[in-house]
Amino acid sequence: MILDLLLDIFRGKALTIPPLDGAFRPNTKLDDEPVLATLSEPDNLLVDGQRLLASSGNAIYSITLAAEPAVVEHFQSPVTALALSPSGELTVGLESGELLLADREVSLPADLRCITALAYADDGTLWLANGSDEHAPSQWAADLMKKGASGSLWKRDANGSAFRKVAGDIAFPYGLHPIDGDVLVSEGWRHQLARFDGSTGNRSTVLAHLPGYPSRLSPAADGGAWLALFAPRNRLIEFVLQEKRYREDMIGQVPPAYWIAPALASNRSFLEPLQCGGIRTMGIHKPWSPSRSYGLVAKLDKNMQPLFSLHSRANGTRHGVCSVAEKDGRLFVASKGGDCVLALDAIAGGF
User: Fold this and answer.
1) Which residues contact 338 (CB under 8 A, 6 or more apart)?
2) pTM to 2 decimal places
3) Burial environment of residue 9 by CB neighbours within 10 A (0 to 12, 13 to 18, 19 or more)
4) Residues 226, 184: contact at Cβ < 8 Å?
5) Nearest Cα residue to 293 out of 272, 310, 307, 309
6) Domains and CATH numbers, the chain
7) How far is residue 123 CA from its own chain's centroid?
8) Exposed (0-12), middle (13-18) or buried (19+): which is 18, by Cβ within 10 Å?
9) pLDDT tens for each residue of 227-242
């Protein structure tokens, strides 16, 4: 690595992105499935008994096959994280930085204001991801463009004691998956999964060089896990991340919706960047075109290595997947960019 840094001075630095190949080979599985429910920017998915819950803006909805989504709870601030305790208590993180447990506010340290993910271990320990010390969850693009790494990992023991900080210097932790006293964390801006020791906070990399920006993790029935990747990596964005002055000017002069940055949805405005990259032949948008948005879900085995994946490609509409949940052999997928929740069958067969 040191030799590469020295050689880069003379040869220039190549921008390489992991290819969509192997377990990440492209397909159209997410676009092929019918919509289970139409919901504006569905985010967190959670299985509560026989109910499927989904957050959308300031509300939590219950989703069933035979009816329209019904509001379960409404809050004064957008919902940013959901979890269910072993005893069945709903735990909710809000954009305002508040944490509610069974509708009661939980006291948090003053520097914990960006709740991006919550997860309970089997013993009742509550894990919490603080995405950034500088930005709110909805300002994730600004945190990326400023190359933020101020995220942190916190835990509260099952006895209800105060939250304590387990680790810091995490580049936007966006997903949590407890494992045997430790916790697996999806680190968005470093495109990897890291495992943190529950006692010491020591970290080890489990899965690196992901082709997109990982978001939330959820358990799979076979002992593995599901990983949502909310946006793709591409060379233009990787190049912009290396140009500090350009990023500073862009942040100061251009509306966030039109930054050269990842997005949850695209092709909605003629002002968006990368439109010339959306190659069209005879009116058809090529699925392999570079894109700011994408739909991607990966199945991980018990060793947290990818087995297969589900895609909505550049020409698809089920982009911005931030959360998935498995229940009774079905996989539920929340497409925040596509304003819908999907239900997929035949998980065991790899689709």
Assistant:
1) 265, 295, 312, 317, 318, 319, 320
2) 0.92
3) exposed
4) no
5) 272
6) 1-52+224-351 (no CATH), 75-209 (2.120.10.30)
7) 25
8) middle
9) 999 999 998 899 999 9
CB 67 within 8 Å of CB 80 = no
CA distance 351 to 347: 6
Which residue from 54, 151, 166 is spatially nearest to 121, judged by alpha carbons? Answer: 166
> Residue 95 is which amino acid?
E
Looking at residue 171, its pLDDT comes to 98
Which residue ranges in the chain fall short of pLDDT 70?
Answer: 1-14, 274-285, 346-351
